[in-house]
Amino acid sequence: MDITKIHSFFGSWSHQVSKLPVYCLLILLSACSSTPQQSTEPYQAQENYIEQLLKQASTAPALEATELRLKASREFLNQKQYAESLRLLNQITPEQLTTDTVKAQYLLIKSIDLVQLEIDTAMGWLEQMSSDYLALLSEDDQWLWQLHYATELNRQQRTNEALSLLEFQRPVLNEIESRELSHFIWQMLEAISPEQLSESLLTSDQPVNTGWLQLALILNSETAEKFKGLAFNRWNQQYPNHPANLQLPIQATSLPVETATRIEKIALLLPLQGKFANVGKAISQGFIMAAYQLDLDIRPEIQIIDSLEGDFLATYNNIEADLIIGPLSPKHIETLEQLPNLPIPTIALNSTESEQLPVNFFYMNLQAEDEATTMARYAAKNNYKKGAILTYNSKKGQKLAQTFKTAFEQEQGSIAQIQGYETNWATSLQRALEIDKSDNRARNLSRLLRSPIEYTARRRNDIQFIYSPLKYKDLRQTNPLMAFFFADDIDVLSNSDISAQLYKGKRDKDLEGVIFSDFRWSPQDLGIQSLPTKAENSAKLYSWGADAFQMAIQFSDLITMHNHPMKAFGSNIYFDGTSRFIREFPVSYVRYGKPYETTPPNIEVN
Coiled-coil segments, which residues (predicted)? Predict the structure, then answer.
């Protein structure tokens, strides 16, 4: 049931309900521990009452027996004995529901039992409650059904629908009742993961829903209280009249009051001499260009510091800033990792293998690794379940393979094999497709028969894709081989190394069907016509610097609303909830030798 149908459905009967009784919300919040129909007798007396109802039902006429069993089932529900309530309902057949009033009660009790027991069929039963049946229930029971319907929508990851359903009724509530509704919504949002909150936020098209989801992400994050306080203050400025303010949870009211709303001083700690001087300078220039391209009320003060000038740790400890971007060197990163606590939030521009990182230590991987993560998430979102990897035997190639594998497995996917480069790409691809095993079986059979045999080599059929983060010239060799080995139904995923060639306008049919992380950044994005001639090959580094600036000025928002992407110049950036900032890139595919930005057509995933 979509939002339009929900509004239409409730609009047909909401005029009958003037307001939501406060105690009805409290009923649900205490898991239906009391309802207007609940007996006020002691617990033992209630058990006796249920026994009496069931005893009467055993000898009563069919219709009366059904109503008595419904009453007994309702009493079990009131006592939070949902399994017992459901057991009684299962003894009632549809033929015994001879009146609409009886059927409405039956649907109400059964749907609540199923929701409370988290049984998958709950939504089906909830949606059998038509507006005609709902109108036969008391006002209290109508609201009780509605709240359980919202609870089940939320459990099925339809959080925006649940929020819209509840907020639709807020205009008829008084202030006290509206507070209770806000309290219920908080309990509902606390029951779901940050990942579900983030997914819901991405699809939210209602400002009130967006406000709920943003605040829930802020309060559920595991970041420092100071940054939560900053983010909460910004949220309050954006949503001063949001219904969440009627009943804020204790974790919001206990946040420290932080008056600073922006990063005012940023230090870039990068190599400006030696082997990686060109890298440090390109990142710094991209960072500065972005600072002057964006329309900001107050531009942060930027200080560029050479990480190779003098003793690194002494240089680091003398920095006065709100945020440090860098270092780049693995050796310098390792030095910081050994400290128990960093005095200033620091975002290293390289990966780390350490599992124990100091407070205030954050990092962003090299672009190639983030592209691997992008493609792994793409594969998972498009229902790929199992794949293989074909890569270089170099340290970088194996690192990309492991990055993809880790990210894909985190999304419940699996990698059957990681195949490195051998004597040539044809041999390597044969091993990845396990064609060599088919050849070996044929040779063994021929040896046993002592006669040559005719056969067609068979390749593996348990994978849906091959991830090949190869250079342009190498991918042009391996991709046509997929058809040669009768494996053109296996999709090829790759990285952005093919982007530059494809966007030069030349059609390249050797890359037909390849799905790749697309890097389309250009100097014009920063308001300049072109990069210096010597820097043309550093476009990714300039883009990295530009994205790092946007990440810096929205630092506290990113770490408090993790997994929710922020649009930057060359990518979307999000925080993974631990210590890592990830750049996520667009995904394109090659058709008729040209790149297209949309999802590939006719992808068949087994």
Answer: none
